[in-house]
Amino acid sequence: xxxxxxxxxxxxxxxxxxxxxxxxxxxxxxxxxxxxxxxxxxxxxxxxxxxxxxxxxxxxxxxxxxxxxxxxxxxxxxxxxxxxxxxxxxxxxxxxxxxxxxxxxxxxxxxxxxxxxxxxxxxxxxxxxxxxxxxxxxxxxxxxxxxxxxxxxxxxxxxxxxxxxxxxxxxxxxxxxxxxxxxxxxxxxxxxxxxxxxxxxxxxxxxxxxxxxxxxxxxxxxxxxxxxxxxxxxxxxxxxxxxxxxxxxxxxxxxxxxxxxxxxxxxxxxxxxxxxxxxxxxxxxxxxxxxxxxxxxxxxxxxxxxxxxxxxxxxxxxxxxxxxxxxxxxxxxxxxxxxxxxxxxxxxxxxxxxxxxxxxxxxxxxxxxxxxxxxxxxxxxxxxxxxxxxxxx
Length: 393
Prior knowledge:
The chain is built from 16 helices and four strands. By secondary structure, it is mostly helical. It is globular.
């Protein structure tokens, strides 16, 4: 424990803050709102919170791939609204089977992301300009697709509405997921440390792995207990966690993920190392567009309709804020999908607390803006400190 405390203090002194600011903000927000309203940490509110984070969280996870390159995608909100509109028109108005309409919506998001990535990576247009143009164009196309009515109500018994309304009522599901998560964390960590030991580089002891696994298990089983006090494990949360775990594996355990980290650290150096920078950049924007499309379906599921306000600018702001607050660097090369999960928890916790207290949306926007500014300032100071200590270029 003394060694971990020393290492943690050293990392903070070097500017490697990671998710520490996001965790601190979450603790402060939860403590404050619980003192102001004792219903905030009730099982009902926390369960609703776990469902609310899915849509914006998926969009934020997609943004992680682009931000890891040191770029930004301003079109994700508009893409989410357009994908939801395409799904609604195909399924409700044209009678296409729901599963086919979902695939079509995902393909629309992937195609838009790849197109914008092509203009950025191959043509050389700045990502900010390309995606800003996309924000305007895809918003306009959404209005055109929806037609004169402007709103399409989804079928009540369909799969998309069930995304945020279905719960696994059996206690075994939530507890089983917590147990599987802790076991998987232990096995992956143990295997990784064995490989590091064989390579004769620094590695964690078995005791340290067991300590971390215990922490994961405590968090998992505590969350499962709270969720089971209300309706059980929400299907939306299960899907969201599956995306986070899967994409975290892609970023940290595959060659593709290491190439994204390399380009974020320095595109020219990555190119000289033989990495196809153009393809990686295009694919990252395609991932962002795809997850924006799926996030749009979750957001449409929450209100059981698609309208002209789907994919609003506030959604884009919340998604970017979630990624940055969670610890993804705006300068590229640092971040994880878990960062988006932490950040969206902070954003939605603010929204949930404001709703419980009956505070105006304008105040919520001001607070969210302040938290985002603080996160960006910390990110900038962190990078300056890393440069001073020779950790970053």
